[in-house]
């Protein structure tokens, strides 16, 4: 079984503050950390820590940051042989403020902007060897659409995490096997006219909506709407929780789990990730997830 991620690879510059500042406001910070991140890389690391054979596809710059991020991915078992090192373009950076059990993020794409259609054409062979591909939207949207279409034509399952959210073409939504927005992203994709339940029923077996402390909702193939409640956590840092959920969900689906049980596993993994600092550093192992599920 092979799972793959096409997406962003960033260095997160994370500041811990008393709270997230308002527009025009200055607040005191207590710590600053440089932590490997990027939604794509985070999701690949989440799956690797859970025991998956996972390959990362993306781009980094030919700078020290890029070298460090490649070494970090290799250190946790992520396959990196098809990541492209781009000359004269810096590696992507995310500026993250953490405060009051939440975060605010500004992303500077850098080399992630070079994950284009030409790059996908170069790696299509190994990409199409995947059993399932996980995508996000920190790379060019035309690339996201291109990969979804490519995988659909070759019967490779796709999990599309539409974050950061921008409107999606109807055909992209239809071709994706699973779509995993949070409530805010779902409103951008589909508007606010329908309730969450009504929206989920339009896409049974495809759409799941994460709802923070409430949990995650989905409509099963038989039309039943389910809410998988969140596990109570001692929150330290929410950065990467959504990426952990997406990675864990994708892995469980690849292993043949049904939608509800995959969400139950992923929800627990995501909650565990919030109990330690840093996106990737807080991600749990399969053993930790199973132990937490047994204790519920």
From TrEMBL:
Inhibition and activation profile: Activated by a monovalent cation that binds near, but not in, the active site. The most likely occupant of the site in vivo is potassium. Ion binding induces a conformational change that may alter substrate affinity.
Cofactor stoichiometry and binding remark: Requires a divalent cation, most likely magnesium in vivo, as an electrophilic catalyst to aid phosphoryl group transfer. It is the chelate of the metal and the nucleotide that is the actual substrate.
Annotated pathway: Carbohydrate metabolism; D-ribose degradation; D-ribose 5-phosphate from beta-D-ribopyranose: step 2/2
List of residues binding ATP: 182, 210-215, 242-243, 267
Family: Belongs to the carbohydrate kinase pfkB family. Belongs to the carbohydrate kinase PfkB family. Ribokinase subfamily.
Complex formation: Homodimer.
Protein name according to UniProt: Ribokinase
Organism: Anaerotalea alkaliphila
Gene of this entry: rbsK
